Amino acid sequence: MSDSSDSEGQVPHVERKIPNILVTGTPGTGKTTTSEMIAGATGLTHVNVGDLVKQKQLHEGYLEEFDTHILDEDKLIDELEEIMEEGGKIVDFHSCGIFPERWFDLVLVLRAETNVLYPRMEKRNYNQRKITENIECEIMQVVLDEARESYAEEIVIELPSNDIHDMESNVERVQQWVDIYKANHA
Question: Is 31 annotated as a binding residue?
Answer without folding.
Answer: yes
